[in-house]
């Protein structure tokens, strides 16, 4: 059955106008000579996304002009064109032309009756992208645009925009809303009656003795408390029902996907099926709109890079037809979205080579990058492993938009799992709504801040003498993990109050630590005190603050103070950069002649901290996330020493040690167990399976580790 694209065209109009505004703002900066590389990058991504949406919805006139516009922005981004006023004026002219087309599309109720693209304008844009535009000529408006287009009436335009911004609501949802509103009104009447009763009681207070007065106050307090609790529950129920009215099924996002996947695959001579699971799951309309762009990029990436042609798949024993699976399910307080393909998987060799070519990683250490670190590289702006530039790939745009939208804009998390030859999965976790979120409020140096509860693991108290200096920065040991301690006050440049004790102060008072986490690890953040944790209405930032990526929104505290909600991924990234700045890298000569050590631990934090300690002393380090992975890497590379945890999935440290000792080339290699298990029986077992040393994390001292390693290697 053919899919009616008309309803998606109306939604596209809103999105397209937003992208067009980004390009226009950048064009004005070009004319004013105030452009920046970041701004040009934003313009390019906006044009690229606009073009892709237009092509998907069969709007060739918009797509053709936007394609030529994208070519100019691509050349500007790559510094092959010099920005000037004429280019800015030409870009503005193209934006006006596209805006007129969008207006006409809205006035026609989404019916695609647009004329072909203006050939003269497209040719002018093409010449400009090749650097053939005269430098002394300011572009005049193209007459063809005025002749081709007629402005819609205000009534028609208004009607089209209203339809694009509307949602359909089931009658039962409206019935629920009206019923609860009736209960809220009745509850309000009861509270009003309580007030009248209190007023009437006033003149009689002087005639009552103490006992009568006490009884009257207790009765009034009891009734008021009951009515307040009822209204409190009703308000939350009212919010829940009101929220569902804005909810739309994910099928609204997924319906056009099958057509898109089939057409993109056919253009690349590939056969791809798209399976949709959980399309009935409902999420906020805001999220539906914002997910359209990243989902499109993920699908293009899967078809172009992931799934091979039929002959390639058959040679590998796979079906000739590739498969992309989109799965949605409720996950606790949020939504879990998976985009999976059964293709080639990520090409880690190509990713490492591109990282070296782009100057992102030194050639000397690129082979030491873990798969997770390689996964992170693909989200870097401008990163692409495609050998040629095509309509779908090679431009280095796409996955950076995905991460920005998911993590920064939508307060979600994004993870990648890939198996060579088997396929790739992108796992996205999102809140159900952006309007209401559970927020943990805390105080820091007299300032109030909030954190989205989804990033908070737990809150703990530690004494100052439990804070250890590991790899040049403070850290704690919690649940068998080394967790770095960060000062949000220092990162936010908040001046310490007189009398406050910094982290470096002598031992004595305990420290309140909020353990925060994203997909890359955990950190312990210092706080002065906790205020509360509850569901709160998120207020968007004013326009002049929207460029501050560290703050995602504002909430009102119980005493009506504005509280900034901090963006945890950005905060953790700032802390990581601060650490890299402070940590001196080993000299290249030292690294080249270093002993090669394998570090095996299922905790990313612990692996990174132990790696920092070892590299600071000149060792070369390779990481593994569990015993089986460590054993596989040890069989491929001869390491000079092995550090391993005990409690790990798949294969624990005792089993790894025993398996390594069974290997002929590891019978005499130093193996050190570093674990939180400090019982004597555990130590004995470690020695029995062949460990040369056993270090409890609770007694961990980096100097002791280095001395032990030196002694065993000499």
TrEMBL record:
Please give the name of this protein.
Answer: Chemotaxis protein CheA
Residues forming the HPt domain are 1-105
The UniProt entry, under CDD domains, shows:
HPT, REC_hyHK_CKI1_RcsC-like
Could you name the Gene Ontology cellular component terms for this entry? Answer: cytoplasm
**Entries under PANTHER family matching the protein:** CHEMOTAXIS PROTEIN CHEA, SENSOR HISTIDINE KINASE CHEA
Q: Which InterPro entries match?
A: Bact_Chemotaxis_CheA (IPR051315), CheA-like_dim (IPR004105), CheA-like_homodim_sf (IPR037006), CheW-like_dom_sf (IPR036061), CheW-lke_dom (IPR002545), CheY-like_superfamily (IPR011006), HATPase_C_sf (IPR036890), HATPase_dom (IPR003594)
Q: Which GO terms describe its biological process?
A: chemotaxis
Q: Ranges for the CheW-like domain? A: 436-577
Gene3D superfamilies given in the database record: 3.40.50.2300, Histidine kinase CheA-like, homodimeric domain, Histidine kinase-like ATPase, C-terminal domain, HPT domain, SH3 Domains
Report the protein's function.
Involved in the transmission of sensory signals from the chemoreceptors to the flagellar motors. CheA is autophosphorylated; it can transfer its phosphate group to either CheB or CheY.
Q: Which residues form the Histidine kinase domain?
A: 162-434
**What range(s) does the Response regulatory domain occupy?**
596-712
> Where are the Phosphohistidine residues found in this chain?
48
| Listed EC numbers | 2.7.13.3
What keywords are assigned to this protein?
Chemotaxis, Kinase, Phosphoprotein, Transferase, Two-component regulatory system
Which positions carry 4-aspartylphosphate? Answer: 645
Catalysed reaction(s) here are: ATP + protein L-histidine = ADP + protein N-phospho-L-histidine
Do you know which SUPFAM superfamilies this protein is assigned to? ATPase domain of HSP90 chaperone/DNA topoisomerase II/histidine kinase (SSF55874), CheW-like (SSF50341), CheY-like (SSF52172), Histidine-containing phosphotransfer domain, HPT domain (SSF47226), Homodimeric domain of signal transducing histidine kinase (SSF47384)
What one GO molecular function would you report for this record?
A: phosphorelay sensor kinase activity
